[in-house]
Amino acid sequence: MNTQTLEHMKQLRLYGMHRAFDSSLSPQSITYTGDELVAYLIQSEWDDRQNRKIERMTKAARFRYSAVMEAIDFDASRALDKNQIQRFASCDFIRQKQNILITGSTGAGKSYMASAIGHQACSLGFKVMYYNTNKLFTMLKTSKADGSYLKQINKLEKQDLLILDDFGLNALDALNRHSFMEIIEDRHGEHSIIIASQLPVEAWHEIIGEQTIADAILDRLVHNAHRIDIKGESMRKKMKNKY
């Protein structure tokens, strides 16, 4: 009967419950009461589904790094506010529709930090997408040519958190400026965005170009944003010297 029950669980795709029930049949297993066994099986199935959901969401986000908040380096030379960074782990900034702007020199760890916050958001059930900014704008230009632009913009709009990495490496042309404005306008007051850039926020106006649009974009981005400016030497150089 147990063998048949296990087979039915597999056919019903109750994989967490299947593993839990199978382990409960071991002679070394804890002896459960009827109520305890039901609770154990249900909890195991719930945990399994949650873990698979987080795995799917993390894969869909396409992070640059497999990063975790616990691995962020708070060395004094980096001048990071540890309390501020650790508060981001709750992802209340997403619930409150706030933004995070991360700046620092090449190799300072901006991408890792943005990815770590994004991974944490996925673990809490938020929909996240990570993009290299230049690649995103190239994709959007291509989508205008093949007629899928609105589909791509709608996909971006549906994300609870959008991460744009390496912003400001190239000045925006008219098409990219329009796309950027549309992205920011769609997300303003509705969803959060993280932008990581080598340039200080004060230099973004020139990168965006066209004063009226730049003013509108930065007003929406900055007024409810948390700012992180990472100091210190390149983390890549630091790790290379270490080993």
From TrEMBL:
GO molecular function, one term: ATP binding
Pfam families for this protein: IstB_IS21
CDD domains in the cross-refs: AAA
Domain of life the protein comes from: Bacteria
Biological process according to GO: DNA replication
Keyword Ligase: no
AAA+ ATPase domain location: 96-229
SUPFAM superfamilies xref list: P-loop containing nucleoside triphosphate hydrolases (SSF52540)
Keyword Signal attached: no
Residue ranges the record marks as coiled coil: none
Keyword tags: ATP-binding, Nucleotide-binding
Family affiliation: Belongs to the IS21/IS1162 putative ATP-binding protein family.
The protein's name in its UniProt record: IS21-like element helper ATPase IstB
Gene it is expressed from: istB
